[in-house]
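Ticket #4471: structure export looks truncated?
Reporter: QA, pipeline team
Priority: medium

Steps to reproduce: submit the single chain below to the structure queue and open the exported record.
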Amino acid sequence: MTDPAPSPITAAILVIGDEILSGRTKDKNIGTIADYCTAIGIDLRQVRIVPDEASEIVDAVNALRTRYTYLFTTGGIGPTHDDITADCVAAAFGVTINVDPRAKAMLLERHKPEDLNEARLRMARIPAGADLIANPISKAPGFRIGNVFVMAGVPAIMQAMLDEIGPTLATGARVLSETIEAGNLPEGNYASGLGEIAKAHPGVSIGSYPSMTQQGFANRIVVRGKDSDAVARARVEIADLVAQLKAADGKA
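Actual output as written to the record:
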């Protein structure tokens, strides 16, 4: 009897902030976290963006943390009145939140005691039982409670926090990827055949991605999976399909 395949390590991202939903701020963190997860074999399954509203944040945290191995949040841990992420995460876990002496000490590495006003102290308020995530850039920490990692929204600070927590994350099998260039062959020409190949290879993910290049319109077909043999078999069949269609259209 062979051992069962290990359960995948999964994750979700929760982006918090009215400024993202309004378009005023363009999110850069989703792609960074997605790349990071892919590189270490964590399957990113879902991304949500919610406003600075307590009920929305609490509901999203509870929904996502119970469904996935990890939940990464970005935004809402600054010093202003609308930075309510820490309070909402505390509410989601049903714990208290207060100024944490460890977090306050971190802030004092950057600020003089007399400058540590009420607003700045908001950044030291941490839910009970949470571990801190160091912030080497501006010192105000993020935190981890349960399987939820709460990080800053500023991309450079988020990246630094992600680097801090990276070694603590469980990793899984990396996703392998193969690309077949379909050139200017229209998707409609190969959609049916590609669908049949996808049915025959349920262990891999197959997608078709049109794009505009310097040479003009082009299609790429991408095969993804964790089994190298399965990815290779699907790739060969897709390459054969594309070659046959190009030859029939005189585009070989």
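Status: closed, not a bug. The export was complete when the record was re-opened. Leaving a note from the reviewer for reference: The two ends are 47 Å apart (CA to CA).
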